[in-house]
Amino acid sequence: MRKSMVNQLLKPWYPLSVDHEYGGFLSSFSYDFKPVGNQDKMIVTQARHIWSNSKAAEMFPGVDYYLKDARHGFEFLKNTMWDKQYGGFYTFTDRQGNVKAGSFAPKEAYGNSFAIYGLATYYEASGDTSALNLAKQCFWWLEKHSHDNVYKGYFQHMQRDGTPIMRDATVSSTAELGYKDQNSSIHLLESLTELYSVWPNPLVKERLNELFLLVRDTITNEKGNLILFFKPDWTPVSYKDSTEAIIKRHHGLDHVSFGHNVETAYLLLEASAVLGIENDATTLQIGKKMVDDALENGWDNKIGGFYDEGYYFKDKPGITIIADTKNWWAQAEGLNALLMMADQYPDDSHKYFDKFKMLWQYTQTYLIDSVHGDWYQGGIDKQPGYKMALKGQIWKGTYHNLRALMNCIGRLNLDKTAPSVPRNVKVEKTGKSSKLSWKASIDNKKVLGYNVYSDGKKVGFTPLCYFFMDDTQALKNNRITVGAVDFSGNLSKQSKTASFTLTK
């Protein structure tokens, strides 16, 4: 998996995809990795490339271009895709960075969530506080414009000035416009999980917990399936009582998405851990139900792989597979979820580890292009035409596969050794600012960074060996300590209390 991740995913994409002429990343590549088309740019793709390069920089610090590429992408987001008049990130531009309409709303919560995700991860890898500050700006912009203070959650579609777009009679019945949805919700959950890890702000935690409960208890139904779309008050959009013809015409709004189910099982457990919920049996059981349902109803028992779509027709027993294709991202998320469940339930009758190995074999046989690199858009057992289809486009980069491979490699090569405790922690006060510094920790693999604590409560994170504290007055009499964290999430013990010095 490690060899595949490096040679068949990272190397084909980077640094080839860096757009040195106009900034950001090129989006569109042919089957053999030649740049093609107009190279329009979407905030989702651009932010995901920042995330991928940041994570690659953390895994492979000896490869200098990953962090450079991540910074290059950050500059494009900051200078071009951020709306300097109204705030928030534009959804879609041409290659040069001129705003385009496309089929998108001018601003979307989904795209802005990935901007937060990429920016927070770039800060985690680099310590560049200007990236963290832009992520904070985006969070506050969403809080002001997209967050629903009445029914909770976030409005997905917005005008350029941030005004939520409400659905009316002029909107086609098959369109998503004006609905709340699971996809933006689960990825806001993901982005706030990442943001809270590096910026432990109380409101970020409140919104993260709010989304966590919404996704787990409202968006996920009793079968373990995600409901795809909702009215603003969280009434589900459902066509189950309609004719089969109407159901099929509206399948984009109402179906069972096995890939999203297994992905969300992981995202819920990830959020639960970052929120500090101990022994969270409820979320674990719901996550298991989501994976089990996908295995029981959407799994190809002959050669492996998760099908794309199913539906519970009222006049048919059980579930009907309405799309037996196997999208690349669903298989990536399946690898991660199956191995996660194998760790939790090694003796379960679903035989998660056997299914994981079967899916990895399927992925190598029908998804990974061993000649030109990267994964086909879908399994060629079902869609052989994908051998010649685009390897990259605005909806397909490296995010799903890299995250899955990275997580699976970590689980298969488990690291339980915590870093050493940071030493010589001191605070130097100069006027109204305070600089906290310490001696670097060591680890059996790699120190990711350092959590900063005030009276035992986490107040910050940095990958560097120093940290500037924002609120000197609030912290000046507190007990300041530092703890190291490695790439696997192992935490060292907290340091001794910092010693204080005053510089005039």
How would you describe what is shown here?
- The chain has 14 helices and 16 strands.
- The chain is of the alpha+beta class and 504 residues long.
- The model has no long low-confidence stretch (mean pLDDT 96).
- Helix 2 runs parallel beside helix 4, helix 6 packs parallel to helix 9 and helix 7 packs antiparallel against helix 9.
- Strand 10 and strand 11 form a beta hairpin.
- 41% of the residues lie in helices and 13% in strands.
- The longest helix is centred in the N-terminal third of the chain and has 18 residues.
- 46% of the residues are buried.
Keywords:
504 residues, 14 helices, 3-stranded antiparallel beta sheet, alpha+beta
Count of DSSP strands: 16
Residue stretches low in confidence (pLDDT < 50, at least 5 long) are none
Radius of gyration computed on alpha carbons: 23 Å
Q: Overall 3D geometry?
A: globular
Strands in their spatial order, largest beta sheet: 14-11-10-16
Mean of residue pLDDT values: 96
User: What structural class is derived from the secondary structure elements?
Assistant: alpha+beta
Through-space gap between termini = 54 Å
Question: Helix amount, in percent?
Answer: 40-55%
